[in-house]
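@channel sequence for tomorrow's demo:
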Amino acid sequence: MSNTVIEFNNVGKQYILGTIGTGTLSQDLNRWWANIRGKEDPYLKIGETNDRTQKGYSRFVWALRDINFKVEQGDVVGIVGKNGAGKSTLLKILSRVTSPTTGDIKIKGRIASLLEVGTGFHPEMTGRENIFMNGSIMGMTKTEIKSKFDEIVDFAGVAKYVDTPVKRYSSGMMVRLGFAIAAHLEPEILVVDEVLAVGDAEFQKKAIGKMQEVSKGQGRTVLFVSHNMAAVKSLCTTGIVLQNGMTAFAGDIDKTLKFYLKETPETNDGMIQDAIKHKKKDIEFKRIQINGTEQRNSTITSDQKMLSLRIEGYTPEEIKTDVMLVLKTKDGIPLATLAEGHYKGLIQTIPAGDFIIQKEICLPEFLSNGQLYCDLMMHHPMVEWQLQAPNCCVLDCEGHQEGYGSAINQHQFGFMGLISNNS
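structure tokens (generated this afternoon):
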């Protein structure tokens, strides 16, 4: 007997830009005429892939196309991909928020979804009333909901406000209550989008723990969308990579994440030199070494307190500058700026000619496992020019604490270093 609870068969979702509904009357007539002749919908033959990096020439866009996969009972599936890859559209189709344009989906069991802040809530109703309403929608009796009520309120931490209309709730309170309802009303399938990122670190950790309990302890199925690779790796057993609305890879979670990170341009193996592209006023980087190597990837362990940096370059005239290293997530969200001089006014003078800058960078103590992406730049806050090597290095943090939120928060850290002139 098959344990398959979700099956996508050639599922696609097409949107018409700037149009609400199916389109114009003439398009509907063309579809009707094709249908009575037993022909395919003519508008399914056209349309562009949802690639946001390319200029579009068609109003017809495929947000998803030819999606095929199966999910077995008890699987915890991580769905990853860049912004706009189709992850949220896939979950909306699964949750019946919208219908597919092509293909069909087979679902076995009740689904509880947490897709967006406030989804499924009536703003004028209280938290208590929304709990009972959501439970009724899922087919639960009033007695069943009552038996779970105290547990839901305690998990969400909204006991003080449970009789307040949810329109008065903050986004964090809505997320906590929404997740608590979805996780505790015993659905066979739990669907969670990136919305958990709205919650604080403590709640995120609690939510991850609850999803592990639901999947491993109760044998329920979880579909989890997140940009937090540490959370995906710790929670999920299998994964799917979406690219431009299509399935690029599906399989074991470790292989899935490896594929996804390799396909992300910033994480390609190679030399730091490949990132040295920017040049202004004839000032240039010639060579960059991080931790004594020119390889783009560098590993930092929990006992490593310093990061060595060596820059070789050329300037045709004397400049006043500072060196900054910006640490980011893979999606380009800045987490920390390592620059003592910039924030303390300790701008350095580099004489004309070839120069070498050597730095020892103090690393923050509260890194979490995962990858950090680095932009290296030289600039003066009071002048126009800026020289930078974007995404010059990927730091693989190993042996650090586990974290479900940002690797580090916005902080500024200092450099210790020297400048020598070879002219």
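heads up for whoever presents: Residues 47 and 60 are 4 Å apart (CA to CA).
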